[in-house]
Design brief:
Distance between the termini: 29 Å
Structural class: alpha/beta
Radius of gyration: 20 Å
Helix content: 55-70%
Largest sheet: 8 strands, parallel, barrel
Strand content: 5-15%
Number of helices: 17
């Protein structure tokens, strides 16, 4: 089992020589931290100044990490991935806005994506971000337990209605729905809403999945408490489990506000927390479903060993693996080739609106130890194999 991710012919089978070269070039750039910082600043400036850079961005970083500018635009990518058994999760990656119109636009887009998901076997999940449906500061105020003004209460009711409308439609269409995780100081309010949706729609099977960010040391306790409530109220739990995306922001805020950081003290502690929660969920598959979002090979190997030990079929419907499009193809395609349920998060949206997402991807790749060098090394091996 240990060598499953080494097969570069399988990992990059869908990439043309030109796409392989582009990937190699991109990861070489990303490996250079000062270059990422300069590139990020220049890109932000160019976009704010409305300079004509969209063509260049589209031809390089956008097309590598994104499926397209619209859901229809993604379909050729979706179909191509599915030829290798890799499903897609269409992720409308326009960052949250503070006015009502974009929030309603996000709702309409997710409802449209749900119809897509129903029609396409290749798209097993829909996904949305809580702050795509409501202002961050409103979630924060709710998390802090501060009373709303009458106007804020009415605004919050609209947020709840957006969640409700989306989950109801997912339930009616029998389509699974992932709710992304965000910063800890607004997450309690999002968790409460997600739990309420699970209570309503996860009676017979898991439709709604919340997200556990396991660089937070308190999440196993949260899961166990949720499990007790689920047993009491008769609903099933769906969780996307990830390490987390806001570490620096979380630590900085904790320091600034003088409270203990919610983040594990080290990378090792985060890894242990992640693997412990995954193993715990696997012990409770009768009432839990897991979407394992990770680019970490070791965690994947541990999951494969556990599944093997428990005689669980690779395509067990309660277990999914997920990676981001444009990253960790050696994990996604080799798992799919071995019969496991695998999907790629496929971001889409107008180039300018998706740029904050792309910048985060570049920054994350520079900060995750070994991630970029691993990608580069595998691309080198494949270039050599193809004699490029």
């Amino acid at each position: 089992m240990k060598s499953i991710f080494e097969n570069t012919a399988t990992a990059f089978a869908l990439k043309t020589d030109a796409e392989l070269e582009r990937a190699y070039f991109l990861f070489k750039m990303i490996a250079n931290e000062p270059l990422v910082r300069i590139g990020t600043a220049m890109t932000n400036f160019a976009i704010k100044a409305k300079l004509p850079v969209e063509g260049l961005i589209r031809a390089t970083v956008f097309d590598h990490f994104c499926g397209g500018i619209s859901e229809k635009d993604c379909l050729p990518v979706v179909d191509k991935l599915f030829t290798k058994g890799v499903s897609s999760v269409l992720d409308y990656s326009v960052e949250g806005k503070d006015t009502e119109d974009p929030l309603d636009e996000a709702l309409e887009m997710i409802l449209k994506v749900l119809d897509f998901v129903k029609e396409k076997d290749a798209i097993p999940f829909a996904v949305f971000k809580p702050t795509g449906y409501g202002r961050f500061s409103l979630f924060q105020k709710k998390t802090e337990g501060k009373p709303f003004t009458a106007e804020e209460q009415s605004e919050w009711d609209r947020v709840v209605a957006r969640f409700e409308k989306t989950c109801q439609k997912a339930y009616d269409l029998d389509v699974a729905l992932l709710i992304d995780g965000e910063e800890s100081w607004m997450q309690d309010a999002a968790d409460e809403l997600a739990e309420e949706m699970m209570r309503k729609y996860n009676k017979e099977k898991v439709v709604v999945y919340n997200t556990l960010q396991l660089y937070r040391w308190d999440r196993l306790d949260y899961l166990k408490a949720l499990q007790q409530r689920a047993a009491q109220d008769g609903f099933k739990i769906g969780m996307k489990v990830v390490r987390g995306a806001y570490m620096e922001k979380e630590n900085e805020r904790a320091l600034e506000k003088g409270y203990p950081s919610p983040i594990c003290g080290s990378k090792v502690a985060t890894d242990t927390n992640y693997d412990t929660v995954v193993a715990y969920m696997l012990e409770n598959l009768d009432t839990m479903s897991i979407y394992m979002g990770t680019h970490n090979e070791e965690s994947c190997y541990k999951m494969l060993d556990l599944m093997n030990h428990k005689n669980l079929a690779p395509n067990n419907p309660s277990i999914w693996f997920g990676q981001l499009y444009g990253m960790s193809d050696h994990i996604s395609f080799n798992l799919a080739a071995s019969g496991f349920n695998v999907s790629k998060y496929l971001p889409f949206g107008p180039v300018r609106d998706v740029m904050p997402y792309l910048i985060r991807r570049a920054e994350e790749n520079t900060s995750v130890a070994g991630q970029t060098s691993r990608e580069l090394n595998l691309l080198k091996i494949e270039r050599k194999r193809r004699k490029i």
